[in-house]
Specification:
This protein has three domains: 34 residues; 114 residues, Alpha-Beta Complex (Dipeptide-binding Protein, domain 1), CATH 3.90.76; 215 residues, Dipeptide-binding Protein, Domain 3 (Dipeptide-binding Protein, domain 3, Roll), CATH 3.10.105. It is built from 16 helices and 17 strands.
């Protein structure tokens, strides 16, 4: 009996100690979890602006997705869903009606009104929205019919309209905040006021942007107190910061370091095919690139498959046409490339350049693009083309391209949805030269096809238009297409709730630990 009682008392003491230790462990874990409410992303570049009418790059749009919302949104599956509109309907072929959601607040505490919606969209339709006109080029007018209803009328049937309405031109900003900023020197691009789950609270240009949770958010409340977007241009530095734990996610991850991250037990790689097409652009208004034979010769002199294999190491895939395989109306006929040095030399001779020529290629400082330019430099020597490489920081790069003095350049174009109609318009239509594209290519027949591509309903006629666009670009080569990309994002395994997008921007608003 005594032995039994002693055993019971001993067990009770051990149990008490065990549960006390266990409680301390849980407290510690809980404390750590409570403290981990800041998510840090290491991205390749800083945003250029936080004004939605000026957003034309993936990093600005990534920041914008934290701050802004439109009447509609695109979910991770590419489906259009209501956001600031609680419902909508197609009234006729040229009109859509949207019923506004009640109780939505801007970050400054003001309620969202129909006037804010109309003002934001009309501003995007006007001169200040030049960067986003390709997204809304089919819109005739935006007006309110009462305090809760917005009607958007189109100039003509615009097939991709609903999906384009989810893009930055349709993001709603505070009319009062914009007008106040413009009265004080036009600072709105640095002081955004939207309705999104996070609000911008600090921005050190070229370094980091800090977004705090918006407690007045009308939708599902964010789990994190803060999201920080850090600009880390050098790819190895991003990877080191990820491995050290200084950032919780790094994007993009260069192909050469994917294995290193996958072998790190604390980290994982998130991949998905995107709609970003990488290409070599020619300044078609400048000699000798105004001659299609010279453009064709350069294409023939490049081993594009070898370049993509060496540079991207299995990330994405070769793509020699304007429309990638994962997009609507892709035509495999134009996804081909011939590598032929002798034919390239013959074309240069026909163009009056038998000994080749000297030229320059520009790129931003993204490693894959610098590596591509370096290989191009080596391969083009075989046909007598001697090129210098000029590498610039991303912001300076875009500014330089707008100046129009370049010869060749490396860049990518992308679509926000599988429908490439608006993206092709912005990249290949002559009206976009110097705004969204820098080839200075002018082809009236192509312009006509691009204009019709978004007006014709989905079906056989629209498919033929898309194929004709692909054929003209394949034959005339104002640019040489090389690769369709893949989003490669490194993350700490403790990060949950991230759904990758197939565009050049990413939505981190739903992440948590």
């Amino acid at each position: 009996m005594n032995a039994g009682r002693n055993h019971t008392r001993c067990f009770a003491r051990y149990a008490a100690v065990f549960f006390a230790v266990l409680a301390l462990v849980f407290c510690a874990v809980g404390s750590d979890a409570a403290e981990k409410d800041v998510f840090v992303i290491g991205a390749q570049a800083d945003a250029n602006t936080m004004d939605p009418v000026g957003m034309a790059d993936g990093y600005s749009n990534t920041a914008g997705l934290l701050v802004y919302e439109g009447l509609l949104a695109m979910d991770g599956g590419g489906n259009v869903v209501p956001r600031l509109a609680e419902s909508y309907e197609k009234v006729d072929d040229l009109s859509y009606s949207f019923r506004l959601r009640k109780g939505v607040l801007f970050h400054n505490g003001d309620p969202v009104t129909a006037d804010d919606v109309v003002y934001s969209m009309q501003r995007a339709l006007g001169p200040k929205g030049a960067m986003v006109h390709y997204q809304n080029e089919g819109v005739q007018s935006v007006e309110k019919t009462d305090d809760e209803t917005i009607v958007i009328r189109l100039k003509y049937p615009f097939t991709p309209f609903l999906s384009e309405l989810t893009q930055s031109w349709g993001w709603i900003a505070s009319k009062k905040a914009i007008e106040s900023a413009e009265e004080n020197g036009g600072t709105y691009g640095s002081e955004p006021v939207g309705t999104g789950p996070y609000k911008l609270t600090a921005w050190r240009r070229g370094d980091r942007m800090t977004f705090d949770r918006f407690d007045g958010y009308h939708g599902e409340k964010p789990q994190l107190r803060q999201i920080v977007l850090r600009a880390i241009p050098e790819s190895n530095s991003r990877v080191i910061e990820l491995q050290s734990g200084a950032v919780d996610a790094a994007w993009p991850i260069p192909p050469l370091t994917v294995n290193r991250i996958e072998q790190d037990g604390k980290l994982s790689i998130v991949k998905n095919a995107n709609y970003v097409v990488f290409y070599i652009g020619f300044n078609c208004s400048k000699k000798p690139f105004d001659n299609p034979k010279v453009r064709e010769a350069i294409s023939l002199a490049l081993d594009l498959n070898g370049i993509v294999s060496a540079v991207f190491r299995g990330s994405g895939q070769t793509c020699y046409g304007a429309v990638p395989p994962n997009a609507k109306y892709y035509d495999a006929t134009y996804n081909q490339h011939e590598y032929n040095i002798e034919k390239a030399k013959a074309l240069l001779a026909e163009a009056g350049l038998p000994d080749g020529f000297k030229s320059e290629i520009w790129t931003n400082d993204r490693k894959e693009r610098v590596d591509t330019a370096t290989i191009m430099q080596s391969q083009l020597k075989a046909v007598g083309i001697d090129i210098d490489i000029k590498v610039m920081e991303s912001g300076a790069y875009w500014t330089a391209l707008e100046g129009g003095t370049h010869d060749m350049y490396l860049v990518g174009y992308y679509a926000a949805t599988p429908d490439f109609g608006p993206a092709m318009y912005s990249t290949f239509h002559s009206s976009q030269n110097g705004i969204n594209t820098y080839t200075n290519y002018d082809n009236a027949g192509l312009d006509d096809l691009l204009e019709r591509s978004n007006k014709v309903p989905d079906g056989d006629e629209r498919e033929k238009i898309f194929k004709d666009i692909q054929r003209i670009l394949f034959e005339d080569k104002p640019m040489v297409f090389m690769q369709v990309g893949e989003n490669v994002i490194g993350m700490n395994k403790s990060v949950k709730g991230f759904v990758p997008l197939s565009t050049s921007e990413q939505d981190f608003s739903g992440v948590y630990f």
